[in-house]
Write a structure and sequence with these properties.
Distance between the termini: 31 Å
Helix content: 25-40%
Low-confidence stretches: none
Number of strands: 26
CATH architecture of the largest domain: Alpha-Beta Barrel
CATH class of the largest domain: Alpha Beta
CATH superfamily of the largest domain: Metal-dependent hydrolases
Mean pLDDT: 97
Length: about 575
């Protein structure tokens, strides 16, 4: 007898092949039959009119901390994600120096937007090795999770406070290689690092990996070559603004030393800056021609995010803005009230040096979110451009004035500057590039500023009922088999006999993401942005029902995906 039969659905199997009507039979957590199934089952689900596809694989998350207080990985689980990859960008919670929670917490708060009170209340910090960290999740996950071993943690474990200042000695590099080998041997699925100028620790110093030489990075990549089922991941300035010849050469050397694929986050597409997009794709082509597999992640939606002049966000990364925003609030307000400083900030934001962050400069398209003064009650929910037109003022000045009236607490929702037809045409073109993969949600990070988790359902809804820039078969393949193949996940990512029963049953008429809201449900009452899933009727992880009609069942059948065991 089968444990489960999903009967009468339309199977989109993850391979890109045409969808077809078929039953799916499951026994002992595996798919054992596809087609017309007559065998009896303990449970039968009628999926008539619904689509059945593999569980989605999110290749770029930062759920490293959240899984301790939220083993279900919400809301990604509701949006059909059954496997996640954590430990990206060089930022991991292991290996760990006992007593170092303050530094690590402040760094994660700065670079990944994880609230310090939530980290203090929700993370036990009771491990040292990478293997001990992984063991905390055995038998306690609602999704499958694989974790990269992060460069910053390794470097700090070996070099302490010197890790953010000094070049490593040969002996220290040898110690780092041994730590990385230990982490990969314990099940880490690869090595991650960052060279991006935007990544600074809680003290304002470059994070540890940014101080490393290329020789150190290549030496660590050589360790990855010794472990089956592993890969590389990194962030860099080229990921933000385009790659120069030196960075292309480094990527080739880095990936070649590992003999493994290297993926980076995130390729943004804007018709106003097509040269950046072309540069990045051409860099991938050059790497592939040199025998190095380098993959760009890109999001298929415009991610919902907000901004603030009070707390760290993307605006701080515009040229010269850090100098104005990085002071105490009273002085910051004085500076923002100065017309000369405002003019300088506006000009700097529109300069070529702004790079990818120029996407934030559509001031008239910003929508005013939560406000905190009587003066601003009438503008809540309105577009800055409309308010500026009424007042006969410049949109940028109006936005700053609104924020000043709220003591800078105003929540700002940027209107995308890259929501034009040409940008969407270029995105669809990128999806078919051999060195591009869908992903980059940053789920688990930037909790009060960004909501990338719904990209799976939102994109499918757009493919089926919106812009229809690609087929549902192609979209499902991008969300399932492509990332599963990159990471070498064994028998995941497809609806195929013998594969693990990670499955999603959804309604093609309603699949989508709900409205973004703020929930104050993190440890210590901290807030995060959150969106429900629409049209996701059932999600199975290893054959166990984890989501029913948009609500989590509370089951935790997920497993830690360890290299060499769950990857190849």
């Amino acid at each position: 007898m089968l444990d489960l039969v999903i009967r009468g659905g339309t199977v989109v199997d993850g391979t890109g092949e045409p969808k077809r009507r078929a039953d799916v039979g499951v026994r002992d957590g595996r798919i054992v039959a596809i087609g017309e199934i007559t065998e009896e089952a303990a449970e039968t689900v009628d999926a008539t009119g619904k689509f059945v596809c593999p569980g989605f694989v999110d290749p770029h998350t930062h759920y490293d901390a959240q899984l301790f207080w939220d083993p279900l990985a919400s809301p990604s689980n509701l949006h059909g994600v059954t496997s996640i990859v954590g430990g990206n960008c060089g930022f991991t919670l292991a290996p760990f120096i006992p007593g170092d929670a303050d530094y690590v917490g402040r760094m994660m708060a700065k670079v990944e937007g994880m609230p310090i009170p939530a980290l203090e209340a929700g993370v036990p910090w009771d491990w040292e090795t990478f293997g001990e960290y992984l063991e905390r999740f055995d038998g306690a996950l609602g999704v499958n999770a694989g974790f990269m071993v992060g460069h910053c943690a390794i470097r700090r474990r070996v070099m302490g406070d010197r890790s953010v200042r000094d070049e490593a000695t040969d002996d220290e590099i040898a110690q780092m290689k041994a730590l990385l080998a230990d982490g990969l041997g314990a099940g880490g699925i690869g090595f991650s690092t960052t060279r991006a100028r935007t990544h600074s620790d809680g003290d304002g110093a470059p994070v540890a990996s940014r101080v490393a030489t290329e020789g150190e990075l290549v030496a660590l990549a050589s360790v990855v070559a010794e472990h089956e089922g592993t890969s590389l991941e990194f962030a860099s300035d080229g990921c933000l603004d385009g790659f120069d010849d030196d960075e292309v050469s480094f990527m080739i050397d880095f990936a070649t030393a590992a003999g493994r694929p290297l993926n980076w986050n995130v390729l943004t597409v804007d018709s106003a800056a097509p040269e950046r997009y072309r540069n990045q794709l051409e860099a991938m082509d050059r790497c592939r021609e040199a025998g190095a597999e380098v993959i760009a992640l890109t999001m298929p939606i415009l991610v919902g995010m907000n901004m603030s002049l009070l707390n760290f966000c993307g605006l701080w990364l515009l040229p010269e803005w850090q100098d104005v925003l990085g002071v105490e609030v009273e002085e910051r307000m004085e500076r923002l009230a100065d017309p000369e400083i405002r003019a300088r900030l506006k000009a700097a934001a529109a300069s070529p040096e702004a790079g990818v962050f120029s996407r934030l400069t559509g001031w008239e398209k910003y929508r005013i979110g939560d406000t905190y003064s009587e003066e601003n009650e009438a503008v809540r929910g309105r577009l800055v451009g409309d308010v500026a037109a009424e007042r006969g003022q410049d949109a940028f000045d109006v936005m700053i004035d609104i924020c000043l009236a709220d003591q800078l607490q105003t929540v700002l929702w940027p209107g995308p500057t890259d929501d034009d037809d040409e940008s969407w045409r270029l995105r669809a073109e990128a999806w078919e590039h051999p060195s591009v993969m869908i992903g980059g949600s940053d789920a688990g990070a930037h909790l009060d500023r960004m909501c990338g988790q719904p990209y799976t359902t939102q994109w499918l809804g757009d493919c089926l009922r919106g812009r229809k820039l690609t087929t549902v078969e192609a979209a499902v393949r991008h969300l399932t088999d492509v990332p599963a193949q990159l990471f070498g996940f064994v028998e995941r990512g497809r609806v195929a006999e013998g594969f693990h029963a990670d499955l999603v049953v959804f309604d093609p008429e309603t699949i989508d993401a709900g409205e973004i809201v703020t929930l104050n449900d993190l440890p210590a009452g901290e807030g995060r942005l959150y969106a429900d899933a629409m049209g996701v009727e059932r999600v199975y992880v290893n054959g166990v029902l984890t989501v029913l009609d948009g609500t989590a069942t509370g089951e935790v059948p997920g497993r830690v995906l360890r290299s060499g065991v769950d990857t190849c």
